[in-house]
Known about the structure:
The chain is of the alpha/beta class. The protein contains eleven helices and 13 strands. It has a seven-stranded mixed beta sheet. Strands 9-10-11-12 form a four-stranded mixed beta sheet, with no helix packed on it. A two-stranded antiparallel ribbon has the order 1-13. A hairpin with a 7-residue loop joins strand 3 and strand 4. Helix 6 crosses helix 7 (155-165) and helix 8 (237-248) runs antiparallel to helix 9. The protein is globular.
Amino acid sequence: MSSSSIWVMQATSEAQYAAALGDHAPDLEKVRDGLWSLGMPMPIVQPHFTLSYLVRDDDGGIHLVDPGWDSDENWQRLVDALEEVGSATEQVRSVVVTHLHPDHLGMAERVREKTGARVALHRVEQEGIHELRQGESPESASARFTQWGAPLDVHGELVEAANRRNAWKPFTADLLLDDGDVLDIPGWELEVLHTPGHTTGHLALVDASKKLLLTGDLLLPSQFPGIGLGGTSITNPIDDYLASIHRIAEFGNYEVLPGHGYRFTGLSERCAVTAAHHDQRTGEVRTALTARPESTVWEIAAGLTWTAGWENLRGLELLSALAQTATHLDRVVAG
Length: 335
């Protein structure tokens, strides 16, 4: 990316910015005519809410993007939001989900049951759901952790975390999307971009006429999303992710509507910072491996800097850190 393409990053929603720094989910907020954002709380400390989007078409129908974590509270938040924009559950026509994680896909089934709306996913993400449903045996997981060099006294904790991560509810979408598809939303030109990396079938949505980019968890304003967290990729998930980041960087002057945090401008700058973070992490792994070629994944991970501190990582966070390190190590070895 050339320096001329970099736009200074800036929050475009004071309410969402304040909520991201605080402990609450932002209320319904108008983004454009016929487009609103809504914070959906989730039972995770950080981030503590997802951002769902409500789109009204030219015929009065409502289309949801990432309905959020499934809970009675969130269902009521959605019902109240629909009423606030002069609509109702009967007007919900479709749901588009950027990826399979329960803070994005979670309430899709409830919305479908109560409204009859069609739910759409990327074709590859549907395959990922079926794959994760099959799970992994404790023996296979333990063998992987042994290969990583994880001490035996944490194997039980890691196996439990792996089982929790793979405890996906069965879900089959009504519509499978492909790269380049345009959503059937009259009055809008939302095009599907296949943006793998965070998960194999992650998608983003772009409307060139309105200069809007909905990124799901591909790009966030204040966090670096995890990589390789859903479905098996035949290529390195970090390389997939960086290719996706490079692809969306061309929309440098668009407003970004992410899955967490707050709306912002300065897409190119954020893409550059995010890509540099992952390249730096790969460099750290390369340095560690050069200094001690026999190092295990566990030993390398223990020497890296983690936001929560290596000694504080437990369960899913520890499993994610090890998996991320293994992915970076594979990238180094592949050259």
